[in-house]
Design brief:
The chain has three domains: 2-64, no CATH class; 69-187, 2-Layer Sandwich (Phosphorylase Kinase, domain 1); 193-320, Transferase(Phosphotransferase), domain 1 (Orthogonal Bundle), CATH 1.10.510. The protein is an alpha+beta fold. Strand 2 and strand 3 form a beta hairpin. It has twelve helices and eight strands. Helices cover 52% and strands 12% of the residues. It has a five-stranded antiparallel beta sheet, with helices on both faces. Strands 6-7-8 form a three-stranded antiparallel beta sheet, covered by helices on one side. It has helices at 2-13, 21-27, 32-42, 53-64, 69-82, 116-135, 148-164, 200-219, 252-281, 286-293, 296-300, 309-320; strands at 90-92, 101-105, 109-114, 172-178, 181-187, 193-194, 232-235, 238-241.
Length: 321
Amino acid sequence: MIQLRAVIRALSLHSDQTDTVNDVLEQYAFPRAVRIAGRCLVGARIVMPAPDVRFSMELRRLVRGHVEWPRLEAVVRELAERYGRDKVRVEFLDADNWLSTPMVVDDEWFVKVITRQNSLVHALFTTGRNLGAFSSGREGFFGHFGTPVQMAEHELEATRRMREIGVNAPKPVEALEIDGLGVLVLEYLPAFRSLDELTAAEEANLAPELFAGLRQLHDNGLAHGDLRAENVLILDDEIYFIDATSVREDGRDDARSYDLACALAALEPLTGPTETVDAALSAYSVDDLLAALEFLDFVNIRPDHDFDAAALKGEIEKRAS
């Protein structure tokens, strides 16, 4: 944890983008796992070494941390008592999530357990993403919350606000602190699929609905801040948004353009640039897409997006000409 704090400090000292993320991390004598963790967390594409089980375990422990079993038991006992259950069934999800330990309780509640380590990793994400925003010629607009329970409270409130304006999202239940852990409880959506699990035909059919939902968020003064395929769920042929992150009020316009760039990036691999831009234009103007174009290079360095940025840019510029 101390080493990750040092990574955050190193990156923040170079936030003017005179150095790349890789350059900054190489300047400091961080251990190999710490340097690669820093690159992963801020979204820098890296070439991983040959498979090494011990190294992979070291990296996972460093980045994701570990919640001791007695503390998880305390969380489950507290939730069972709060919801009037003598016993509960818990399923821990095998999710690629660095910001919480997710689990499903009684097939009814989706629970995220957030540690101080997760909060620290979120701070590193935030620093790196703001560096990326600088690289697009904008001031950083991502925000961070200092404690695990504040992270849980923010996501609860973001989910509640999405539902209030008519955007599909899981029903928020509560956010609380248990034994120093932030605990978020939401409705569990069974039998959902994420956007990247759809066929090309299904995704093309739902693409206008995705942009319409995103536009609804934006028209009501909200921004998602972390729109990617894993954060768009499909249940009964309807789209649900999850895992909204924090963006600063003074950067909300840029955050909306970034949202739109992320939505374009999430759809392009399956539907192609032409159909993706067609779907976006069903909810946004050409000027909106031109503003989003400025963020496509930033989105393209994120390891959780893999799309043809040049083709998307070309298609947007063609529509603008």
